[in-house]
Design brief:
87 residues, mainly alpha, 51% helix, 0% strand
Length: 87
């Protein structure tokens, strides 16, 4: 099934967008290397400034603070399950 939101494919990304996609794949946000950029991030590919803000927020969200990274992940997984979301 094709996406309803148009986006820029990873192979076509240039400049800031290519750098942000590489950050996503590198694992610096999730803690694990990925083969592909998640589709949710592709949806912002026409606005790299928005994507950069999401990347920055993700770094804060998944860093240790009042909650550990594991607790953040557990909450995010639980909320996704409640919402029937595969993310």
């Amino acid at each position: 099934m094709s996406p309803r939101i148009s986006w820029i494919e990873e192979g076509d990304a240039r400049g800031q967008l290519a750098d942000l996609f590489e950050t996503s794949r590198s694992g610096s946000l999730s803690g694990m290397r990925r083969e592909h950029v998640p589709d949710i991030l592709h949806t912002m590919s026409h606005r790299p400034d928005f994507l950069a803000a999401i990347v920055d927020a993700s770094r804060l969200h998944f860093s240790d603070g009042a909650l550990t990274r594991a607790q953040h992940e557990m909450i995010a997984s639980y909320v996704s399950a409640l919402n029937h979301c595969h993310y």
